[in-house]
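Design request, tokens follow.
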């Protein structure tokens, strides 16, 4: 009699291996998100600056990142750099580089959109009241910027977490790769293992992304009060 497909989750340390794989996914995502937020804020202000040359260069960067699929960019960085420039990158390092480049571009455009949506008189009134530029951005611009930016930024963060599943194709042993290994090792004894393993991976991603979206809703309600 063949084992139940559900039993594959409880065999040996399969569940623990999946959780460890999720830890790799979260680690790569978190580092990429932090870099993206910091770099995106800088890029957003550059894209909204009065210097046309800076706006032009930042726009080219944004469009190049948007046009190229993340998978192609992963292959370009991981395989292309290694063969062309003899740079030895680990899969994790390549993943962080690629998702940071993508995240900075997308976050920068969100920041630019939030900045340009602010009424011009906000800047003029703050300066007329005698605020320095630092005080103006700290007490007037940034609080409004965060409120406008939050929903789109949370959407980008959850997209980045989910898109990290692509790194399985460059050999990084994250949660999807671990799932594939478990399915393959039980291919003959438990043919229905795939639906249970991938279902469990879905629940893991849901457990990570859902609280982030709920936190966004909570902060939106908090700032409206």
């Amino acid at each position: 009699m063949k084992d139940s497909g559900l039993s594959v989750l409880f065999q040996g340390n399969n569940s623990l291996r999946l959780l460890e794989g999720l830890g790799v996914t979260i680690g790569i995502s978190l580092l990429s998100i932090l870099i993206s937020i910091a770099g995106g804020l800088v890029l957003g202000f550059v894209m909204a600056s009065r210097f046309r040359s800076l706006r032009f260069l930042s726009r080219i960067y944004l469009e190049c990142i948007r046009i190229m699929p993340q998978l192609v960019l992963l292959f370009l960085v991981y395989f292309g750099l290694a063969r062309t420039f003899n740079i030895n990158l680990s899969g994790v390092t390549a993943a962080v580089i690629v998702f940071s480049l993508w995240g900075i571009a997308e976050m920068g455009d969100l920041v630019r959109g939030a900045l340009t949506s602010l009424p011009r008189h906000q800047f003029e009134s703050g300066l007329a009241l005698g605020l320095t530029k630092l005080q103006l951005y700290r007490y007037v611009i940034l609080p409004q910027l965060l409120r406008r930016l939050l929903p789109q930024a949370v959407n980008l963060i959850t997209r980045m977490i989910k898109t990290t599943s692509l790194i399985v194709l460059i050999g990084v042993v994250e949660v999807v790769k671990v799932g594939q290994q478990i399915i393959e090792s039980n291919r003959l004894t438990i043919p229905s293992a795939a639906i249970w393993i991938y279902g469990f991976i879905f629940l893991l991603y849901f457990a990570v992304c859902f609280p982030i979206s709920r936190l966004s809703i909570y902060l939106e309600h908090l700032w409206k009060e």
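Comment from the thread starter after seeing the answer: thanks! The chain has a mean pLDDT of 87.
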